Amino acid sequence: MKDIVISFEEVSRAFGKKRVLDHASFEIAGGEIVAILGASGSGKSVTLKTINGLITPDEGKVEVLGHTVTELSEEELSPMRRRVSYLFQGGALFDSMSVFENIAFPLREHLDLSREELREKVEELLAMVDLEGVGPLSPSELSGGMKKRVAVARALALEPEIILYDEPTTGLDPVTGETIAHLILDLDRRLGVTSVVVTHDIPLVLRVADRVLFLEDGRFDFTGSIEEARSSGPETVRNFFKSGVIHA
Q: Which 8-state DSSP code applies to residue 1?
């Protein structure tokens, strides 16, 4: 059994009168690819942001890579976040920077590299996502799928142990979505990272996930394999896989 690298214990979070997480609990082991499913607005993205301390829960305990996130100050969270990369839904690239500068940004912020070492590292990261030669381009010159891959390259810059993906295939055509799925699997195989994927994209889930967590009414009432989700999970979970989409 691999070590647990992410743990939620009775975590609650409300925004005004809306209770998004309600004593939610789950565990994720190192090297797993886990898909978080649930209706729009159910709290999936809130869960991701709580993992790396962007959102603080009202109650409960969050542990990541041996650290109790809920007890860390903003300054103490910084080194942990180097080990936990967050891939935002839109990629969050800097439009005013070239692709090269976007990927180089975290390297310059956290590492002391020579100009040549920086160039080599950025080229290595671009090659990892099959985008050799696009460094001089601006994000506006890239397709949606290419932007997502650049964002992945930047997320890998500091060699994280965990990658949090927020709707990585939203807005992409099926072929490009398959490319992103292949990339997630490839990173898992080559680098051994733990991946947490928030998505509505059932083909992506079927392609990459080792396990599914289903969030409903603030709690993860189902956790299990895809086969268990499709055959013996609660009706809401089984219907999700039948329909391929949740309507908010």
A: -
Shared-domain flag, residues 189 and 241: yes
Characterize 231-248 residue by residue with b for buried, 16 or more Cβ atoms within 10 angstroms of its Cβ, and e for exposed.
eebeebbeebbeeeeeee
On whether the CB atoms of residues 123 and 72 are closer than 8 A, the answer is no
pTM (two decimals):
0.88
- Whole-number Å distance between alpha carbons of 40 and 24: 17
Kindly indicate the confidence band of residue 101, based on its pLDDT and cuts at 50, 70 and 90. Answer: very high
- pLDDT tens-digit series, residues 12-41: 999 998 999 999 999 999 999 999 998 888
Check whether residue 59 and residue 174 sit in a common domain: yes
Written as one letter, the residue type at 23 is H
Domain count, the chain: 2
57 and 100 co-located in one domain: no
